[in-house]
């Protein structure tokens, strides 16, 4: 689900992404645009706004991707306790709803638990998680880029030569 606003996010142009996403949300209060808005706020270091937006979105779209974005934001904001609660909920919810291991990995990355995050990303690749194709461009994965395992994962996923 790529759109011009998420492309701005991928490019690190968070202020522009926030501006356009606010417009998109004003026109149509679509939950997916609101997730991107929350993530753009987080990438810009505006954690209070990000948490507020993502909590609101979770109320109307109680999906694993929404919850993972909130958990990751909690972790990046320094609230490891709330991030861990989200992580545990995602893990226990796998029997009730679709929870890709990629969503678990997102929170683990935020918590700095790299080994577990790589294991979860490997599992997400095996699950054929749709978002594996974005590993190369999404800033969510920046903390892993210098690790040789990340390059290997990209290669296994067909995203690197």
Topology:
Layout (H helix, E strand, L loop, with lengths): L3 H7 L3 H14 L3 H13 L3 H14 L3 H13 L3 H14 L7 H10 L3 H14 L20 H9 L5
Helix pairs in contact: 1-2, 2-3, 3-4, 3-5, 4-5, 5-6, 5-7, 6-7, 7-8
User: What would the average pLDDT be, to the nearest integer?
Assistant: 92
Largest sheet: none
Oligomer: single chain
Give the proportion of residues in helices: 55-70%
Poorly predicted parts: none
Describe the protein's architecture and organization.
By secondary structure, the protein is mostly helical. It folds into 2 domains: 1-61, Serine Threonine Protein Phosphatase 5, Tetratricopeptide repeat (Alpha Horseshoe), CATH 1.25.40; 80-161. It is 67% helix and 0% strand. The protein contains 9 helices and no strands. Helix 4 runs antiparallel to helix 5 (64-76), helix 5 packs parallel to helix 7 (101-110) and helix 7 packs antiparallel against helix 8. The model has no long low-confidence stretch (mean pLDDT 92).
In short:
The protein has helices spanning 4-10, 14-27, 31-43, 47-60, 64-76, 80-93, 101-110, 114-127, 148-156.
Please name the defining characteristics of this protein:
161 residues, Serine Threonine Protein Phosphatase 5, Tetratricopeptide repeat, 2 domains, single chain, globular, 67% helix, mainly alpha, 0% strand
């Amino acid at each position: 689900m790529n759109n011009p606003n998420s492309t701005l996010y991928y490019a690190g142009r968070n202020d522009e992404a926030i501006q356009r996403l606010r417009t998109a949300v004003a026109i149509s209060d679509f939950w997916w645009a609101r997730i991107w808005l929350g993530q753009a706020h987080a990438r810009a270091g505006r954690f209070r706004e990000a948490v507020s937006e993502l909590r609101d979105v979770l109320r109307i779209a109680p999906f694993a991707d929404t919850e993972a974005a909130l958990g990751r934001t909690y972790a990046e904001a320094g609230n490891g306790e709330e991030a861990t609660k989200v992580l545990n909920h995602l893990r226990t919810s796998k029997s009730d709803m679709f929870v890709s291991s990629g969503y678990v990995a997102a929170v683990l990355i935020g918590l700095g638990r790299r080994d577990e995050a790589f294991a979860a990303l490997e599992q997400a690749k095996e699950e054929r998680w749709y978002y594996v194709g974005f590993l190369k461009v999404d800033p969510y994965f920046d903390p892993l880029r210098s690790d040789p395992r990340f390059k290997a994962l990209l290669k296994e996923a067909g995203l690197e030569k």
